[in-house]
Amino acid sequence: xxxxxxxxxxxxxxxxxxxxxxxxxxxxxxxxxxxxxxxxxxxxxxxxxxxxxxxxxxxxxxxxxxxxxxxxxxxxxxxxxxxxxxxxxxxxxxxxxxxxxxxxxxxxxxxxxxxxxxxxxxxxxxxxxxxxxxxxxxxxxxxxxxxxxxxxxxxxxxxxxxxxxxxxxxxxxxxxxxxxxxxxxxxxxxxxxxxxx
Length: 197
Hints:
Elements: H1 2-33, H2 37-58, H3 62-80, H4 92-95, H5 116-133, H6 145-169, E1 182-186, E2 192-196
Antiparallel strand pairs: 1-2
């Protein structure tokens, strides 16, 4: 009896070690991909194009496509939104930094609610799940797809309009293109002055 328990414990330990090792290899791979932003997004774009091609050629799985589109829209909105939302920040002095609203206020960097790597990872993972779903017939629920397309376009336009109004109201730009780049230079007195490039 004791011998059986020891053998079972040893097998469980071996399985646990193997799963831990697989998790470490997976995390190491993700860590190596982190600095290669352009390559990661090109791979995800190819995956999305493959998914779209499969949907078009098989003429089905429109519900899966719609759900994937809504999820990606939700991720995109989180990517565009600041981590500390000025609209919900009623007691900013107590909670920490906030976005500047006037030109004479101190510069505070834009921190996203959903960082770029997590955005990419979620988009890639969800696209892979959607692609796997297209291989199972029970996920192919018959629907009239033009209604889904119109509803998605309407939802996209309303959501983006609200997000753009929010960006204008609180004066933030979630992208670095077009923002002034500041560069420090030293005065003869030894003082460092930061001025726009």
